[in-house]
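Memo to structure team: turn this sequence into structure tokens by end of day. - J.P.
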Amino acid sequence: MIKETKAAGAYCNRGNALFAKGDYARAIADYTKAIELQPNSAAAYQARGEAYAKQHNAALAQADYDIVLQIGRQQSTAAQ
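Reply from structure team:
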């Protein structure tokens, strides 16, 4: 599990660098890989949603933002 978390973080970091360069398609690919490795990563979904928004794909961006909210609710409920 720790190995997957580290790898997911590495994919997010590279995705962030690609996003900063405006390479949204490759950033999305890295964020997607991070999500595959760590499905409850709200940060990866948030970042991928932002990349989709930069590509003017509102539907996919909204879908990722909805998942971020769902993860937040799950974590909030679990904390109680």
